UniProtKB/TrEMBL annotation:
Its cofactor is Zn(2+). Pfam families: DUF3458 (PF11940), DUF3458_C (PF17432), Peptidase_M1 (PF01433), Peptidase_M1_N (PF17900). Residues 559-881 form the Peptidase M1 alanyl aminopeptidase C-terminal domain. GO terms for molecular function: aminopeptidase activity. Residues 102-192 form the Aminopeptidase N-like N-terminal domain. Residues 232-442 form the Peptidase M1 membrane alanine aminopeptidase domain. This is Aminopeptidase N. Residues 450-554 form the Peptidase M1 alanyl aminopeptidase Ig-like fold domain. Signal peptide: none annotated. It catalyses: Release of an N-terminal amino acid, Xaa-|-Yaa- from a peptide, amide or arylamide. Xaa is preferably Ala, but may be most amino acids including Pro (slow action). When a terminal hydrophobic residue is followed by a prolyl residue, the two may be released as an intact Xaa-Pro dipeptide. The keyword Methyltransferase does not apply. The lineage of its organism: Bacteria, Pseudomonadati, Thermodesulfobacteriota, Desulfuromonadia, Desulfuromonadales.
Amino acid sequence: MEDTKPRAIYLQDYLPPAYLVDAVALRFELGEESTRVSSRLHCRRNPDFPGEPQALVLFGRQLFLTSLLLDGRQLQPGEYRVDEESLSIPGVPESFCLEVNTEIRPQENTSLEGLYKSSGIFCTQCEAQGFRKITYYPDRPDVMASFTTTIVAEKARYPVLLSNGNLVEQGELDGGRHFATWQDPFKKPSYLFALVAGDLVRIADSFTTASGREVQLHIYVEQRNRDKCDHAMRSLKKAMRWDEQTYGLEYDLDIYMILAVDDFNMGAMENKGLNIFNSKYVLARPDTATDADYQAIEGVIGHEYFHNWTGNRVTCRDWFQLSLKEGLTVFRDQEFSADMTSRAVKRIDDVRVLRNAQFPEDAGPMAHPVRPDSYVEINNFYTTTVYNKGAEVIRMYHTLLGAEGFRKGLQLYLERHDGQAVTTDDFLAAMAEAGGRDLGQFALWYSQAGTPVVQAQGSYDAAGRVYTLKLSQSCPPTPGQQEKRPFHIPVALGLLDLDGNDLPLQLEGETAPLGTSRVLELRAAEQTYRFVNVPSPPVPSLLRGFSAPVQLQADYTEAELAFLMAHDSDPFNRWEAGQQLASRVLLKLAADHQAGRPLQLDEAFAAAFGKTLCDSDADPALLAQALALPTETYLAEQMAVADPEAIHAAREFVRRALAEKFRHEFAAVLEASARSGPYSIEPAAVGWRSLKNLCLAYLMTLEEPSTVDHCCRQFQNGDNMTDVIAALACLVNSAGPERQQALGAFYEKWREDPLVVDKWFTLQATSKRPDTLEQVRLLMEHPAFNIRNPNKVRALVGAFCHGNPARFHDRSGAGYAFLGDRVLELDRLNPQVAARLLGALTRWRKYDGARQELMKSQLQRILAAEGLSRDVYEVASKSLA
């Protein structure tokens, strides 16, 4: 019997393409029921292909082939072969012109891959393999061609026609139709192709590059959104200037365009010259977008713009190299955001994402290296490992080589490989050459999965005034990789004296100290470092700035953590010390809850918390981060067997106990922040709002009438969405009538704004109330919910399953069954979204036996379903393997 299971693709099997495409001319006849696509390819055999190719193979899915011409001669059905995935033509000449004519139905394309229609707008999403849903083509990143695209459509319905590159011709046609022809002067792979047609308004601006060229900047949105684009345009111009100043990189076309669309699987897409964005990452106004939204828009706008060089001009050879463009560009957008806001707060936010999402991925059945060895469905590898851990790998280059060495390495990489499709090895080689370093061992970060564990032990010899630090490393087994070789790990550190001052650092054998903070390079399984001329027993500040994506196990006492929390000159490590102290307290309380012991607030922790809260000199943004308790997701990862119920009980107890103990101090912060002035997205104003709203959330756990009244006034009178949504988030968890009143008023005010309604869905999905799942089920029937829209699914279903561990992991298993139903329902509509939702079940082995069985049964039910997509099959099968 034939095995119909989806097959894996392996990096080791890579071969260059048998045929190259030098140029492609596309013509789209957009229709209301179907669209005709004509593709003319100028092809030739690839001299680098090993052996003699037997046939030209073009990829295609869900296409209706209408005709096929080779050098002007129409081929007959016996001269080619078509199946569900490809079109193959044997015996083609050395070079030839192939014309492929197909018919597609964008209006029925719920997968949102290829060409589809959203809110009356035709648009595309071709990464990773969406182009094969448009026409038959060698749809792989190492086939780079120059594209000319002609779009024909009804002018009244679709007055705006856009594609990559520069507009070279436009005109009127019979029957009320018109056309536009775009030409991209830069060769690109098909995944960077873009097309847009719709009734859109254009927000126009311009940017003058460092060399004096003027670039036109256009943002296209629906008419109702034209007043929400100012921040996106400012962010784009900031990103363009930052890339020039930081890396000397100018934009290379005459025009840069952005489209905002409501239905989109991802955040945005960097198509050359025509970026298509999820509207969530473009549209902002103070009354509709939060501070977090503003910052996310700036970061994503920057990310897609930075791809112009790191992803477009130099792209990845194959999809195993995805982090070559994504990890590198995430690092670039993180650095951009850090320069635009608070560097310390940005670093904390990035590490929080890494620990809450990527570390669990590394510890689960979907663990894979930054450069995967294999995949069944490439869409499943748009992961936090490829993006966020990939960015940490780039950051380690920066740490090891220094800012100037890294810049030289990046410049060498771009100069050497401009216009090419390359690999992570090529990037590493450029960095090693520019930095004059041997980075051979560093390459293991690309090929080994898992989160390394670094153990640190220190001792002090008073007589010799020597501090000895022993570092060791290990990495747990991951699927397919039982044994791991030592990584090359940069460990940034400092030593603090008893007064909290940084000590000069001099290693044994050095003639003089080299500053008060330095980077050690841990390369072996175990290494020992001896610091001399240390006048008193120091407290080490380890892994400053989170210099490597590792789990640090250090023998700190609670008193030392409190000391670092108060004195460390490294802001990240000051925050980290507080988080570790809070984690110890919370995990002890979770154990007390499991054992039925009464819960009591740890006095030493409370004292450290109070001292931090009353630090009037602290940056409010950093203070808000320091006072926020570790998340339930992070705490679950610290337990051998995760107990969501005990973690939730412990964390809620501590929040209430701290609110009771410091009610006056919290109230004082609220009063002080009320004088922070009119709304602004400047970092200082953002910091004050984050601190104020954190204090309000603590006080609202007591549900005292005066605080509830304050919360209601903030909800009703707030002049910005940040304050309004913070107040509503508190009221959603309250027991009084104010909850329903506020939810009803909020929806009535914002029912016509889809992105604001998404916030309304998410607040209810992440409520701590016991009836949350019941409310989520009811909201799925709400007229504002649409299961075909990824934003709506993420806002409601995703928020509940991924963002509400206490209710999702209810002992009844009802949350698991709910997710199983949604995955099967969505798999028929949008497999990408379904597979990402399913991630909430992949860590089933982390839980107790009863929950394991309930989660496993849902995975088995999903895997047994007929017609399962490759996306969902891969996640379910690997989870059960």
